[in-house]
Amino acid sequence: MDISVIVPVYNAQEFLCKCLDSIFSQVFEGTLEVITINDASTDNSLAILKEYQLRERRLIIIANEFNQKPAVSRANGMKIAQGNYIMHVDADDWLMPNSLNKLHQKSIESNADVVVYNYLIENSIGERKYINNISEELITKDKSNVLKYFMGNSATKFVKRNLTTKMITGEYTINSTAEDLLYCTEILLRAGSICIIPDTLYVYFQNEKSLTQKVRPETVIQNRVILLQVLRRIALANNAESRIINNILIRFERIIYSYSMKYWLSNSKAIIETESLINSFRLFPEMSEKRIMAIYLSITKKRYSIYFTFKNYGLKYTLYSIIRSFFNQK
User: Would you write out the chain's pLDDT as a tens digit for each of its 330 residues?
Assistant: First the structure.
């Protein structure tokens, strides 16, 4: 088997057929399997999968008995995958034509453990934004050269299957979109050689109904506790370079500053439990007490949350967030 495409499915009945059609209509001479994991959907997603399977034998269905979130669902799919290469596709996204053929050929040609590529974002009215982070092809074993391309989005990584066995990321039910960052980090740390290509091969659909658009600021902040603990396990298991882990921690810090401000501006009555979060940051020798204190102040004091958001994101973003919160409360 050449390629296994893993598709976690949760309440995706509106988009599922378009997603699957984009995969099965690919011009690809090799062998392919598509493993869908229905994560206890409450809509007609499972019925759609079963109907689709009647006409497409390469479609495999796993049905989770209860909702386990994307990280575990992907792990469940990878456990049974037979392909030499693994690709992840979200159920409301789709592939550009000839993507699989290009990726498979480039993987064979470069013998890279991971091939990374560009993507585009499309909204509900068909407007497109091309995310061309990669401007030229590069094959490298120096992970610092490609670190910025691994800061999220598992769907832009075409990976040798032997890198995906017994992953730490898939052991946890993570209620956060940051499971992509953990998966990509673990893949980066396990990889030997990495190939990046400037081709745009994946379409990310900006779904306004998505759960990620509605998550509360305090939930985002509190979710960092388990994410940091998993990140520490990944770092230790792979003898990670301090520079790589520090870059990810900086990303986590920036998210906390931003969502701390959103939390304060929302006048939420929810209480954020700071001790476990601070202790999770203290697991990392890269974190100084000064950085940890800044996180603590941002969560516990409104003025500091605004200050650190301004310091990290600039005046335009900070003012926009303040004005938007004002109108949302009217």
Answer: 999 999 999 999 999 999 999 999 999 989 999 999 999 999 999 999 999 999 999 999 999 999 988 888 999 999 999 999 999 999 999 999 999 999 999 999 999 999 999 999 999 888 999 999 999 999 999 998 999 999 888 999 999 999 999 899 888 776 666 788 999 999 999 999 999 999 999 999 987 665 445 678 999 999 899 999 999 999 999 999 999 999 999 999 999 999 999 999 998 888 899 999 999 999 999 999 999 999 999 999 999 999 999 999 999 999 998 988 876 765
Give how far Cα 150 sits from Cα of 88, 131, 137, 189, 248, Å. Answer: 14, 14, 16, 10, 10
- Give me 202's structure tokens: 């994946």
Q: Find the distance separating the first CA and the last CA of the chain, reported in whole Å.
A: 56
CB 71 within 8 A of CB 43: no
Residues spanned by the domain of 288: 215-328
The pTM is what? 0.91
Question: How many domains are there within the chain?
Answer: 2
| Assigned token pair, 114 | 């991971």
Q: What is the DSSP letter of 123?
A: -
User: Chain-centre distance of CA 183, in angstroms?
Assistant: 7
The tokens describing 216, both together, are 């509360």
Coil, strand, or helix at residue 112?
coil
Helix axes of 217-237 and 274-281: crossing angle, nearest 10 degrees: 30
How far is 129 from 131, CA to CA, in rounded Å?
6
Q: Token pair for residue 63?
A: 């049905």
Kindly state whether residues 307 and 284 are assigned to the same domain.
yes
Rounded CA gap, 105 and 109, in Å?
6
Tell me the backbone φ, ψ of residue 159, rounded to 5 degrees: -125, 140
Nearest to 58 by CA among 12, 87, 88, 20: 20
Q: In this structure, what CATH number is given to the domain that contains residue 176?
A: 3.90.550.10
Q: Tell me the sheet residues that pair with 131.
A: 119
